[in-house]
């Protein structure tokens, strides 16, 4: 049995190894314990420093003892810092390994699923399937063309004869319009009157005539 096995009670060949999750949980618990130990040591260092300052030159023996205890606490604190760094590194490495294991496990699971999906398929079968699909699409298109084609309407008539008849109808309509235009040209227009219209009387002339009438009436009265 190895030294670590003796220290931590590891089993022999038949012993079951801990899972990554269990090991990570144990490391976190150890980190929490050491963190509490750190807080305790930092508090003791502060107390011993206060004791040394308090005694100072009054009680050098007590001050020196306090400084010695402070140094031991600082050494322990430094060791805990190093241990925490090692445990943190180990925990992170274990977490990464656990993540990689889960990723590989899931990728293997997906690979098995893909293999099962392609179990009854190969490239030749895929080519045959695509060829069948293309053939069926062509057949469907031909059926659609046949269904959409008019049946019994227009096939028995000659298209040239129909176009000639249409031209005759258009010519008849054009001739009819020309005759109507020519008929309007034979209708006599009203003649222009030969007599001139009476001109408007001059305003000055009318005033002179009114003055003459007034003079004549005055003479007759006398």
Automatic annotation (TrEMBL):
Q: Which GO terms describe its cellular component?
A: cytoplasmic side of plasma membrane; ESCRT III complex; late endosome membrane; multivesicular body
Q: Which UniProt keywords apply?
A: Coiled coil, Endosome, Protein transport, Transport
Compositionally biased residues, Low complexity: 187-199
According to its UniProt entry, the protein's GO biological process terms are: cilium assembly; late endosome to vacuole transport via multivesicular body sorting pathway; protein transport; vesicle budding from membrane
Q: Where in the cell is it found?
A: Late endosome membrane
Against InterPro entries, the record matches this protein to:
Snf7_fam (IPR005024)
Recorded hits in Gene3D superfamilies, A to Z, give: 6.10.250.1710, ESAT-6-like
Region of interest (Disordered), residue spans: 1-20, 182-222
Instruction: State the membrane topology.
Output: Peripheral membrane protein
Primary location class? membrane
PANTHER family xref list: CHARGED MULTIVESICULAR BODY PROTEIN, GH13992P
Q: Belongs to which family?
A: Belongs to the SNF7 family.
Name-wise, this protein is Charged multivesicular body protein 4b
């Amino acid at each position: 049995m190895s030294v670590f096995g003796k220290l931590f009670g590891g089993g022999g060949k038949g012993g079951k190894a801990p899972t990554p999750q269990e090991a990570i949980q144990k490391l976190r618990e150890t980190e929490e314990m050491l963190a509490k130990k750190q807080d305790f040591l930092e508090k003791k260092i502060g107390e011993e420093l206060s004791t040394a300052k308090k005694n100072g030159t009054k009680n050098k023996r007590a001050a020196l003892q306090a400084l010695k205890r402070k140094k031991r606490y600082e050494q322990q604190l430094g060791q805990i810092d190093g241990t925490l760094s090692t445990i943190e590194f180990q925990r992170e490495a274990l977490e990464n390994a656990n993540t990689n294991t889960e990723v590989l496990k899931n990728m293997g699971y997906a690979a098995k699923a893909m293999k099962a999906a392609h179990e009854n398929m190969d490239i030749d079968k895929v080519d045959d399937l695509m060829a069948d699909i293309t053939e069926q699409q062509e057949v469907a298109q031909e059926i659609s063309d046949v269904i959409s084609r008019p049946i019994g309407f227009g096939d028995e008539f000659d298209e040239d004869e129909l176009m000639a008849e249409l031209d005759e109808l258009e010519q008849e309509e054009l001739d009819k319009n020309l005759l109507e235009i020519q008929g309007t040209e034979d209708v006599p227009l009203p003649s222009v009157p030969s007599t001139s219209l009476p001109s408007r009387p001059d305003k000055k002339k009318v005033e002179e005539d009114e003055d003459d009438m007034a003079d004549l009436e005055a003479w007759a009265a006398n």
